[in-house]
Design goal:
globular; mainly alpha; about 140 residues
């Protein structure tokens, strides 16, 4: 039997996800929305083009990979899910780190820093949204 705290957390995440339908969906994509807004502003302010574009593209790519992996992992058995989630998480982090290194090699140190800042900003927003969203439905305590 779930505890009251678990039930409250699930209820709050349900409310967050269902809040106005569109609002909950927008919150889930807040990192991408802010990325789309940030890229032109950063470029207009003179940020290194290669770094900003590579950082933003890497974040978009890892987001697409995450969605595809979640669907694939959900179809697996309970024993396989833990390992696959671990591989998925580390794989996407390595993808982002590789993009930062690529930006630095292709464009220079300033581009690497710009890519790192793009990834850091998007990751911070996605992390905050995840914290606000609470425990996913069906997650064991």
């Amino acid at each position: 039997m779930p505890s009251r705290a678990h039930t409250a957390a699930s209820a709050s995440s349900d409310a967050l996800a269902d809040s106005g339908g569109r609002g909950g969906a927008m919150l889930g994509y807040l990192d991408l929305i802010l990325l789309v807004v940030t890229v032109p502003v950063a470029l207009a302010l003179g940020a290194p083009v290669v770094g900003v574009v590579v950082g933003a593209a890497a974040w978009l790519l890892q987001h697409v990979v995450a969605r595809a992996d979640r669907r694939l992992i959900a179809r697996q058995g309970a024993n396989a899910r833990f390992g696959l989630n671990l591989i998925d998480g580390f794989g996407r982090i390595w993808l982002l780190a590789g993009a930062i290194v690529l930006a630095a090699v292709v464009g220079g140190r300033q581009d690497g820093l710009a890519a790192a800042l793009m990834v850091f900003g998007a990751y911070s927003v996605a992390f905050a949204v995840r914290l606000v969203g609470g425990r996913p439905l069906g997650a064991a305590r």
